[in-house]
Design goal:
The complex is a heterodimer of chains A (100) and B (366). With 100 residues, chain A is mainly alpha-helical. Chain A is built from 5 helices and 2 strands. Chain A has one domain: Arc Repressor Mutant, subunit A, CATH 1.10.10. In chain A, strand 1 and strand 2 form a beta hairpin. The longest helix of chain B is centred in the last third of the chain and has 21 residues. Chain B has 2 domains: 232 residues, FAD/NAD(P)-binding domain, CATH 3.50.50; 127 residues, FAD/NAD(P)-binding domain (3-Layer(bba) Sandwich), CATH 3.50.50. In chain B, strand 4 and strand 5 form a beta hairpin. Chain B contains 9 helices and 19 strands. Classes of the chains: A mainly alpha (100), B alpha/beta (366). Chains A and B meet through loops of A and strand 4, strand 6, helix 6 and strand 17 of B. Chain B: One of its GO terms (molecular function) is oxidoreductase activity.
């Protein structure tokens, strides 16, 4: 693990470095899902918008597979972090809104 | 539950064009955008567009954004939901929206995903130091909010975005130390590159950033030459004193809603990343879900508007609002327009990407 990799941030939301990603791969994580669950890369506020391709590229290099064969993990709603309270307060039948 | 005939997510050039086209056939449209006004990336594009005059070339992006926003406001078939994000799309054709009023579902008969693209990040030591920006963020700061990002900038990437933002930085009184390009040739149009060079800014091809350094914020960057395998060459390092590093290293389509809709997605590097398969009507493999603009492959505003129009037309047709012969005629017109817009050298890459995509589509249906 190079010192340089420890100073390279892959997932800004969760402060996951390239060293963390390479360590996870070295320990046998070979899918996007495994890397996500072990390192938390892609689990922060932006839900992987920034790091997804970077992790996939790293994995594709390691596996020697083209990037299109390294599928991203499942995309589930919500696409960004929201408060549980806001979901609980959801108004399923809102009044007509006036136009802004 | 609130209902709409066509929900359009993203009020940039693609989404607005789609919304207006569908609305012109009487379709009730709900146009959703994270921004508080329609326009998407146009609201920060102070430069003039290239291309056909008939298609808005020679017009500044900010002016075009105002014109489009006015058309939206004046159109009684379009409801604009600003400051609103689409959180998810469910199989019963329900979009979940986060609005300023709270979270609400929206039932839509058709969906047009025109969510655009996000900026690609680059891996180098110090890449999370304050002062490392995406080029889009720098443009927003300067051209929307009137805030300079710093005093001295290293631009990474010489595509049109990198070149245009470099010029706009200079216009705002910011020094641009250099523009780096990893490829052996400049990525953007020669006319933009020449403007930069005339200002005395070096454009260094075959170069990349080795690292950023600084105590709590960017104080400088070390750059180096790359060999033919994209590895940095030790001994070629140069130290640049800058307080901003601006990354203009490309965009990647934002397709979360398309994945959730179950659309078949393919990775096509020429199009910027994962994009949906779509047919000649801009409809994805998820029935009733259309795509347009950068979300279908990273390109530029004039093609985004044409794709949006085609998607809006198709959505209206699929709802039974467009006579078949009119649909066929207009579709051919727009497809012809797209073909001509892609005739230049930069269009070649897109056409290669679309070729790859259509081959994959055939594999799926075979």
């Amino acid at each position: 693990m190079s010192k340089r990799d420890e100073d390279i941030i892959v997932c800004r939301c969760e402060d996951v470095t390239l060293a963390d990603i390479r360590k996870a791969i070295g320990e046998g994580a070979t899918t996007m899902d495994e890397i996500k669950r072990i390192t938390r890369a892609g689990m922060g506020p932006c839900q992987g918008r920034t790091c997804r391709l970077l992790v996939a590229a790293e994995l594709s290099r390691y596996l020697g597979k083209p990037l299109e064969q390294v599928m991203p993990s499942t995309y589930r709603p919500p696409v960004k972090a929201v408060k549980l309270g806001d979901l609980a307060d959801m108004d399923a039948d809102p009044e007509e809104v006036r136009e802004d | 539950m609130r209902k709409t005939e066509l929900a359009v997510v993203g009020a940039g050039p693609a989404g607005i064009s789609g919304a207006l086209e569908a609305a012109s056939y009487g379709v009730k449209v709900t146009l959703i955008d994270r921004g508080d006004r329609p326009g998407g990336q146009l609201v920060k594009q102070t430069h003039k567009f290239f291309g056909w005059h008939a298609k808005g070339a020679g017009t500044r992006g900010i002016v075009l954004a105002e014109q489009l926003a006015r058309h939206i406001r004046e159109n009684e078939n379009v409801t604009f939901f600003g400051s609103t994000e689409a959180l998810g799309y469910y199989s019963d054709k329900v979009l979940l929206l986060e609005t300023p009023r709270g979270i609400e579902p929206l039932q839509c008969e058709r969906l047009l995903v025109a969510t655009g693209a996000s900026e690609k990040m680059l891996l180098f030591p110090g890449n999370d130091l304050p002062g490392v920006y995406g080029a889009g963020a720098v443009q927003t700061l300067m051209n929307v909010y009137g805030v300079r990002p710093g005093r001295s900038v290293l631009m990474v990437g010489s595509g049109n975005i990198g070149l245009i933002v470099s010029y706009q930085l200079v216009q705002a009184g910011v020094r641009v130390a250099a523009v780096l390009e990893a490829m052996p040739v400049i990525g953007g149009y020669a006319v933009h590159a020449s403007k930069i060079r005339r200002l005395g800014i070096p454009i260094l091809t075959g170069h990349s950033i080795k690292e950023a350094y600084g105590d709590g914020q960017v104080e400088g960057a070390v750059i180096w030459k790359l060999d033919e395998k994209w590895n940095g060459i030790p001994g070629t390092e140069k130290d640049l004193k800058v307080d901003v590093i601006c990354l203009a290293t490309g965009l990647t389509p934002l397709g979360e809603l398309l994945w959730q809709a179950g659309a078949q997605m393919e990775y096509v590097s020429e199009l910027g990343g994962f994009v949906p398969l779509y047919d000649e009507n801009m409809e994805t493999t998820a029935k009733g879900v259309f795509v347009a603009g950068d979300a279908s492959g990273v390109e530029e505003a004039s093609t985004a508007m044409a794709e949006g129009k085609l998607a809006g037309l198709s959505a209206a047709w699929s709802l039974g609002r467009v006579p078949p012969e009119e649909f066929t005629r207009k579709r051919e017109e727009i497809r012809n327009e797209l073909y001509q817009l892609r005739a230049g050298p930069t269009g070649q890459k897109i056409l290669r990407g679309l070729e790859t995509l259509s081959k994959r589509a055939k594999k799926v249906t075979a």
